[in-house]
Design a protein that fits this description.
Elements: H1 13-16, H2 21-28, E1 34-37, H3 44-54, E2 59-63, H4 69-84, E3 93-97, H5 104-116, E4 120-125, H6 129-132, H7 135-138, E5 142-145, H8 151-164, H9 166-171, E6 173-175, H10 179-185, H11 189-201, E7 209-211, H12 213-222, H13 232-246, H14 250-262, H15 267-282, H16 288-303, H17 309-321, H18 327-342, H19 357-361, H20 400-413
Parallel strand pairs: 1-4, 1-5, 2-3, 3-4, 6-7
Length: 418
Amino acid sequence: MRPRSLQDYIGQTHLVGPDGVMRRMIESGKVASFILWGPPGVGKTTLARIIANTVNVPFYTLSAVNSGVKEVRDVIDRCTRDAASMFTQGRPILFIDEIHRFNKAQQDSLLGAVESGMVTLIGATTENPSFEVIRPLLSRAQVYTLRPLEQPELQSLLDSALAKDEVLRSHGVEVKETTALFRFAGGDARKLLNILDLLEQSTPQGEKMVIDDATVTGRLQENPAAYDKGGEMHYDIISAFIKSIRGSDPDAAVYWLARMIAGGEDPVFIARRLMISAAEDIGLANPNALLLANATFEAVHKIGWPEGRIPLAECTVYLATSPKSNSAYMAIGKALDLVNETGNLPVPLHLRNAPTSLMKDMGYGHDYKYAHDYPGNFVVQQFMPDELGHRELWTPCDNPAEMRAAALQNQRWRPAGE
């Protein structure tokens, strides 16, 4: 069922749609180094294979799970020979699956070939490249984010499987309901196909295979490991962990933390999610939460395992018992929507820097009011683009810290005479 061309590829229209950057790259045959970042089962490896089938250059693959520095250097040597060959029309491509599992030495061994242009690197990762890929390599490769498949895309995948898979066609399949199927799939194409495989295997020969919510839920509960091939427990438990913190339940949060520790979860991954939660869910209600989460991340790095579980637990309880606010998270979301809606509006002249006399003559920086020259270090002036006036993007939440900040802002910005 793995697509072999962009025409059969499902999802990621922001990258492979008619105007998508990946489609233009693939159709032109001019592939630059990039890293695909997204959850399991959304098409990272499939995109790499489509490139291999489309572009007329040597294509090599490595898995970070079982490749060391020697294997990387051997492949790079072959790529170098290919690049020097008069018969090669473009740079060889090296695809590395799960590149986040490469250590620093392994990633360093790629730098020379990528920087010299001897090889085009394509990496795939489920982890944030900012944390897992060394900075010199990141600066030489564009990062593209892949998203979980949405319901219409899962429906397209289901329709395709029912139409193309010979085993499913031989059974005859009656689709009554898809709510449970899509919910358990969770935006993961591989997981959806695994569930179909489980349903087929549990349907007696000669009987019609039925897809409805009761059947899907019952079969999966009877076979809890059968649909976990894409790391389902990894994402479900971290979701329960974060939602317990957000819901101010320290007992549940510590329980899910223990489940992750007992299951061998990467402690650095847990520490990163605590940092995100501190910024997203606690935010301005208790800014110290982010400081503690960052300190926890550093502590886990420094003291290692198993003692690292102690600062993780401390931070978990602190975040769960802290007052909550998502006002900063909501504000940046509104701001990004506004930017997408209004485009690149010009910066007001009085806010622009004027390092040259020509810029000063053009009005750059003219009439800018230096806040520290005014009482209370504040003076009313226009800071947003003129076309927007003053849009309120930050809405304070109902907690003491933000109520104090909101009162001060109201006092500063209320019209004169009020």
